Each structure stands twice: as C-alpha cells, then as structure tokens.
Amino acid sequence: MLQGINLACVRGDRELFKDINFLLESGGLMQVRGPNGSGKTSLLRMLCGLSHPAAGDILWEDQNIRALDSDFFAAVTYIGHLSGTKDDLTVLENLQISSALAGMEISTEQANDALHYIGLKGREALPVKVLSQGQRRRVALARLLVCKTSLWILDEPLVALDVMAVKLVRGVLEEHLQQGGMVVMTTHQEIDISAASIMELQLA
Length: 204
What we know:
Blueprint (H helix, E strand, L loop, with lengths): L1 E10 L2 E11 L3 E6 L6 H8 L7 E6 L2 E2 H4 L1 H4 L2 E4 L11 H11 L6 H10 L15 H9 L1 H4 L4 E5 L7 H16 L3 E5 L10 E6 L2
Parallel strand pairs: 3-8, 3-9, 6-7, 7-8
Antiparallel strand pairs: 1-2, 1-4, 4-5
Helix pairs in contact: 4-5
C-alpha cells in the first residue's frame, strides 16, 4: 500500500502543488495528469524517494518511506521520462547493468528473453547510440520484464513508442496489476488499462 498525505512541492519561490492525498492498494493503478510544469515528474520522484516533499508524508505499508530506506527501494522500480540508457553500452549491457544497479542480477539468457519480448531481437549487441528514440525507450522498459518489484513508478513510459509497442506495454502493465502489483504513471497518451482499481490524480 502506498499513501500520500497532504503532499506539497515547491520549486524556487513557486508552489507547484499542495494538499495532495491518495491511497493506492494492491492491484491499483494511479494515473497522474496535469499540464507541463504542474509537478508530475516532481511528484513521481518524491514517491520513489529521490526527493522530499515540501510538506506531507509518503507511507509504504503504513510506514514513512524516509524510515524504510533500502527496504522501500527494494520494492520499487522507477523509470523516468528520459530513458536513462548509456549510449556507448550495448542494448544487452544496458539491461544487465541497470538491473544490477537496482539490486537484481540477471543472466544473459534472461536479458535476451526480455529484449526479444519487448521487440529488440537482433539488436542486443548494438550500442544504444545507434537506436531510435522508440527503441531506446524499449530498452528502458525491458527492465519491467525482469524486475521483481511490486511498485512501478513510470514517467511517460509510452513516449516515442509506436502503436504495437504501446499495446505490448499495456499487456505488461496489466499482468503486473493482475498479480497484485501497483503502478503509478504519467502519460499524455490515452491508454485503456484494466486494473482492480483505477484513480486519476489531477495536478493543476
């Protein structure tokens, strides 16, 4: 269970949002919406512990995430709106290293299976710098196929993806939710995802 209580965000002398409250339970999807500059990315970074709210608390299983440290981070996969890939590493190396940094070692076979599923078969040995933006996004999203975390926090996961890739990602998200996982995401694209519960959090 992830809970936000009276969350506020300030950047410089500007208050982006305040009094944000939500409760996300097993199998639940929360879509964060709002215009550019409303604080969507800032909120997601708070929820995964990369920054702190100006006010309010974030609870994981009824405990403040600041007190949980590694126990909370071990339950979270965060994929930002930038792909976070390393240009000079191969597609395969990017997936294996990003997984290792998140605390999960995966075999070459596991990595290849994920890359094939996400639509990158035949590109495993290519340096990421030669890929299109959509392919780079697929490399980042391949992490979802090998991670064992319960909470996925995704900032614009569908950016640069074609129609078939969006359909594939929707299937991955729905399977995670059906297994009791939770998803918090932002997206400017309309996507119909089945979940035990769906909520929209609107930022001004």
